[in-house]
Design a protein that fits this description.
It is built from 4 helices and 34 strands. It is mainly beta. Strand 26, helix 4 and strand 27 form a beta-alpha-beta unit.
Length: about 500
């Protein structure tokens, strides 16, 4: 007898399936049918129940192959339903090769979580897949979901770091939250055209996922759904029913260079392209009134023409922070607020076109920190230039009057019945029937050379000694918010 056991031990070194059993079962009898608890391969036909599966998972420590294709799971007294792999039934199992019952209908919550399976083919007919079904299966390489399934549940394949291939059928309506979170080996997935919703963090951390085609029926993409993925292009322009794009949806996508969002969007979260450091081109909906906070922070936009549009009303905090490639920005007349550090750290910016503004937008704190300076020109109309020069943060720019934008501004020829201007004895004398708030002088290059606060008086005197002889532009701002400009020789 000792010789026989020694021979079996030696044989076990060369044959990984030395202990293999095939049994025909009646539900509840597996324990009595297994002859060797060291068995490594087990094929079961007949019927089994939750107690049998529990025995398999907890009392066959060396089992690596389990074939249940010919078995039927029956309901049991503890409430486990028929044709259902019970919740957490094979959680943590060492089984690497698993064939599920052909007539299976349900995979319950976590039934295969943290197991050692390498491949999962879910049989046709399974129409219910529980949450976290394969959560943490670090050896799982490929998954096939049947056409009978309507959804990929939340946490389904979270942390399956070896997962490379996923086959999803036409008919899948939703992909749940964190369903593929952290699947770092996943390189490509085809999202079915029937999919309308992608949940929060569904593909977060899929660092090798580089190519995603977004289905045209898509209606919503959850928070951080594609954060920290490897996608290079996010084209959602054909998702014409899409209404919601969650915060941080494409944040930290370091390979993303181009993005296009659909016109149908009505709700956009903050930070959707946060830290997309390669992002150069973005097409936003033409109806979008707000650049949400952190929306494009630290991107590499080459143009803001499609970002700040005629309907943009506010620019959220840090929205365009750190866009070092931008050299030019045009502020539309519709902008009413620019929030904290929204346009800070734009090291290459040379010009801001503010000629369309009729009023100063409200500013948050440090809006232009590291951006504004004497080497950055702010083009303004003659009427608005004094306001920019007087306003904190704006006056850090080199404010230049744009003659083209000021062409239609009211001008006066002294003397008139409203204003009289005269230059004599190195002094510019101005008399008006209306109260004067400020008087500003610009040279013909648009540079401010003098500014005097008059404080509501109808008389103003501006010293000109030390100024170069020539023509200057005199802008008179009245207390009723109207303004006149005129060229005067001094």
């Amino acid at each position: 007898m000792k010789v026989i056991f020694a021979l079996l031990a030696l044989l076990s070194l060369s044959s990984p399936t030395l202990y293999a059993e095939q049994v025909e079962s009646i539900a509840g009898t597996i324990k009595s049918l297994i002859h060797n608890t060291q068995t490594e391969s087990l094929t079961i036909t007949g019927t089994i129940n939750a107690a049998d599966i529990d025995f398999i998972n907890n009392h066959l420590p060396n089992l690596v192959t389990l074939d249940l294709s010919g078995a039927t799971i029956e309901a049991s007294a503890d409430g486990a339903e028929s044709n259902t792999l019970p919740a957490y039934a094979l959680m943590g199992s060492r089984i690497s090769t698993l064939t599920l019952p052909a007539n299976l209908k349900t995979l319950a919550d976590g039934c295969l979580a943290a197991s050692s399976i390498t491949s999962l083919i879910i049989p046709e007919g399974v129409d219910s897949i529980g949450i976290a079904v394969c959560n943490g299966c670090n050896s799982l390489v490929e998954v096939t979901v049947p056409s009978s399934a309507l959804a990929v549940p939340r946490l389904a394949f979270k942390g399956c770091t070896a997962l490379k291939s996923v086959t999803l059928p036409l008919g899948i309506v939703s992909i749940g939250a964190q369903s593929f979170y952290g699947c770092t080996a996943l390189e490509k997935i085809t999202i079915p055209e029937t999919t309308t919703a992608i949940g929060d963090e569904a593909f977060n951390g899929c660092t090798r996922l580089s190519n995603v085609k977004f289905p045209s029926r898509l209606k919503s993409v959850g928070e951080a759904a594609f954060s920290s993925t490897g996608i290079a292009m996010a084209d959602l322009s054909e998702c014409k029913n899409m209404k919601f794009l969650g915060s941080w949806a494409f944040s930290h996508c370091l390979s993303l260079t181009e993005a296009s969002l659909p016109e149908s969007l009505t709700e956009v979260g903050e930070g959707i392209f946060f830290d997309c450091t390669s992002l150069e081109t973005v097409a936003l909906p033409s109806t979008l009134t707000e650049l949400t906070p952190y929306m494009l922070k630290d991107a590499s936009l080459t143009s803001a023409d499609d970002i700040l549009t005629d309907v943009t009303q506010s620019v959220g905090r840090y929205a365009l922070y750190g866009n070092e490639q931008l050299t030019f920005i045009k502020l539309p007349a519709s902008v009413g607020r620019i929030d904290d550090k929204a346009m800070a750290r734009m090291g290459s910016l040379t010009q801001v076109d503010a000629t369309g503004l009729k009023a100063l937008p409200a500013l948050g704190e440090n809006v232009f920190d590291g951006t504004a300076g004497a080497d950055v020109t702010l083009l303004a109309s003659a009427a608005m230039a004094p306001e920019f020069e007087a306003a904190p943060q704006w006056r850090e720019f080199n404010i230049v009057i744009d003659e083209a934008s000021s062409a239609d501004a009211p001008t006066i020829d002294a003397p008139t019945d409203k204003v009289m201007i005269r230059h004599a004895d190195n002094t510019l004398y101005i008399k008006s029937e209306r109260a004067i708030e400020t008087v500003t002088l610009h040279d013909m290059q648009g540079r401010a050379i003098a500014r005097e606060a008059i404080g509501g008086n109808s008389l103003a005197t501006i010293p000109t000694s030390g100024m170069a002889t020539g023509v200057v532009i005199v802008t008179i701002q009245f207390t009723d918010d109207s303004a006149y400009s005129i060229k005067v020789k001094i």
